Amino acid sequence: MSDLARSYTNRLSHVPMHRNNLPITSLLSYINVHYQTITLEKLAEHFHYSSRSISDFILKETGRTFRETLQNYRLVHACQYLSKTDISLNDLPELVGYSQRSTFERAFKEYFHCTPAQYRKNHQSYG
């Protein structure tokens, strides 16, 4: 039985994706929930497709690469933390999936045209 399941899973990873088989909303919801630690490989494994198929599908359906999509989710979550909590700016990058603060701050500034500290100052809704 386990050989049959393994064989089926292997075949699935080589089947081209179609909109009817896997809605983009399922992928995006999964990325949104797991944005802190998700990788393209983990996403592909979860949905039983190859990394290349998942990557191509995301680009085709959203106009963004997996990396751009993931960065968007991470930065949107960062904005929520900045505006609704007092979490330290030192702790925030790791919390939203960045291993280095400088990488996080560079991405944030490029995307929002302000630093995380400036964003917090202008959008604070706690306290």
Helix content: 55-70%
Q: What would you report as the Rg, rounded to the nearest angstrom?
A: 18 Å
Output mean pLDDT: 88
Strand portion: under 5%
Biggest sheet character: none
Secondary-structure element order, as H and E? HHHHHHHH
The number of helical segments is 8
Distance between the termini: 57 Å
The overall strand count is 0
Q: How many domains comprise the coordinates? A: 2
Low-confidence stretches: 11-17
SSE class: mainly alpha
Instruction: Characterize the overall form.
Output: elongated
Describe the protein's architecture and organization.
- The chain is mainly α.
- It has two domains: 2-63, no CATH class; 68-123, Homeodomain-like (Arc Repressor Mutant, subunit A, Orthogonal Bundle), CATH 1.10.10.
- Helices cover 66% and strands 0% of the residues.
- The chain has eight helices and no strands.
- The chain has helices at 2-12, 24-33, 40-47, 51-62, 66-84, 92-95, 101-112, 116-123.
- It starts with a helix and ends with a helix.
- 17% of the residues are buried.
- The model is unreliable at 11-17 (pLDDT under 50).
- This is Helix-turn-helix transcriptional regulator.
Short structural summary:
The chain is built from eight helices and no strands. By secondary structure, it is an all-alpha fold. This is Helix-turn-helix transcriptional regulator.
